[in-house]
Each structure stands twice: as structure tokens, then as C-alpha cells.
């Protein structure tokens, strides 16, 4: 089922020296139950495109619709609270909250009672493989892999089923990288998440259901499994 539809989207910004055309005429769709990976060189527009999907920026031209609603016309703060979650290379956990409290946070924002939020947060942490002994640890007391799995648990707790991941394994060793990739694939295939990951790692990209590459702001499909993507570079 289609979740996100991107139509002729372009985005540019002004830096100190020039106007940068970061995203150019991209048209694509993203479906539930699939893991998408976007690769490309630094400066190709990958992270900017992810920011557009997260509603952090609005296209200069074209439209992004999520479940049929134009992202530029809805409450984007509510969108990020309820439909989409982002995980980053640097984890971005709250440093003064424990692992459990980090995962409880989005639940409490949604109005879930503290007792229920705690119970649900514990379940999410267990699902991503965090031992109960770690629930009361602060991020600085946890390994990189544990921090990133906690970040995934927090994303799950947000209630959304769109997960955007910007270089989520960039700070991890090979073993923890594998655990995070398996977790993201499982969320897509077993929980019907729409997972969209930006990465430089070709081995991770080869495991995606749909593999795309950005070059000079344009999108191109490298491999796909039953997904509609048109108007791409080279076509």
C-alpha cells in the first residue's frame, strides 16, 4: 500500500556563496512493508531529501503527499509526532533521561498514562534486544549499538509507521550494524513499517527491497521489487 507519493519535487537553498539545487525533479512512491535504501556521494541530496520526507523542509516545487494528504498543508509537528520517526547516526537520545525514559517520552507526549507508558516502553526495549538491566542506564553508560537500538525503540513508541534513518549504522561496529539492519528489515516486513534509509554502505543497500541512488539531486533506481518509481534520472 502506498504511503508516500513524491511528485516532481525540487528543493534549493542559499549558502554563503551560491544557490544549491539539492533535489531536482524527483518523482517516486514509497509503500508499506518495504525497506528502501538511498545511496549516493556526499552532497548528492540524500539527507536533504530525507528532511523533506520528514516535513522539516518544504519543496520549492512539486508535492509530497502522505496517506493522500499534502505535507505542505497539514500540521507538520503533528505529522512528526504521529506518523513519522527519524533515527540518526549520532543517536540523538536525551542525555539526561534513562533508556526507559527516552522510550517513554513520545508515549507521554501522546497522553498515555505514565504507568502504561512505562509498560509499553519496557516491551519496545525488549523487542529491540535491550536487557532489563540497561533500562535505567543513561545513554553515556551504553554502547553505541545499545543507544541505536534504544533510538529504534523510541521510534516504535512514537506510533508512526514511517521510519526515516539517516546513516543509522555509521557509528557502529560490524556486529551492531548487522543487528540494526536486521531490526529495520523486520520492522518493514513483519510490522508493515515504511523504512527509508540513507547510507554509504553498499552491503546494506544490497539488502533493501528497493535500492536507489542520488546524484546531483536526481534519483535513480538501481534495483527494485514491485515498486512504482518514475521520472528518474536517465529516463
TrEMBL record:
Q: Which residues cross the membrane?
A: none
Q: Where is the ABC transporter domain positioned along the sequence?
A: 4-235
Q: Which UniProt keywords apply?
A: ATP-binding, Nucleotide-binding, Transport
- Family, per the entry? Belongs to the ABC transporter superfamily.
Q: Name one GO cellular component term.
A: plasma membrane
GO MF terms here are:
ATP binding; ATP hydrolysis activity; transmembrane transporter activity
Q: Is Transport one of the keywords UniProt gives this record?
A: yes
For this entry, the protein name equals ABC transporter ATP-binding protein
What SMART domains would the database entry show? AAA
Highest taxon of the lineage: Bacteria
Pfam families assigned to the protein according to its UniProt record, in alphabetical order = ABC_tran
Amino acid at each position: 500500500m502506498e504511503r508516500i507519493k513524491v511528485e516532481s519535487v525540487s528543493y534549493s537553498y542559499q549558502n554563503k556563496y551560491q544557490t544549491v539545487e539539492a533535489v531536482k525533479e524527483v518523482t517516486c512512491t514509497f509503500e508499506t512493508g518495504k525497506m528502501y535504501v538511498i545511496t549516493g556521494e556526499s552532497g548528492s541530496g540524500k539527507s536533504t531529501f530525507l528532511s523533506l520526507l520528514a516535513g522539516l523542509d518544504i519543496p520549492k516545487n512539486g508535492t509530497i503527499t502522505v496517506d493522500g494528504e499534502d505535507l505542505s498543508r497539514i500540521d507538520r509537528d503533528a505529522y512528526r509526532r504521529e506518523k513519522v520517526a527519524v533515527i540518526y547516526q549520532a543517536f540523538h537520545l536525551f542525555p539526561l533521561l534513562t533508556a526507559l525514559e527516552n522510550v517513554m517520552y513520545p508515549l507521554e507526549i501522546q497522553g498515555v498514562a505514565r504507568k502504561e507508558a512505562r509498560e509499553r516502553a519496557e516491551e519496545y526495549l525488549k523487542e529491540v534486544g535491550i536487557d532489563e538491566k540497561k533500562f535505567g542506564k543513561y545513554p553515556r553508560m551504553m554502547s553505541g549499538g545499545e543507544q541505536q537500538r534504544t533510538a529504534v525503540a523510541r521510534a516504535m513508541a512514537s506510533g508512526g509507521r514511517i521510519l526515516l534513518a539517516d546513516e543509522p549504522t555509521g557509528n557502529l561496529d560490524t556486529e551492531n550494524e548487522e543487528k540494526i539492519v536486521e531490526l529495520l528489515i523486520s520492522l518493514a516486513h513483519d510490522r508493515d513499517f515504511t523504512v527509508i534509509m540513507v547510507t554509504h554502505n553498499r552491503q546494506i543497500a544490497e539488502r533493501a527491497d528497493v535500492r536507489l541512488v542520488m546524484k546531483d539531486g536526481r534519483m535513480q533506481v538501481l534495483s527494485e521489487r514491485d515498486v512504482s518509481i518514475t521520472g528518474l534520472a536517465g529516463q
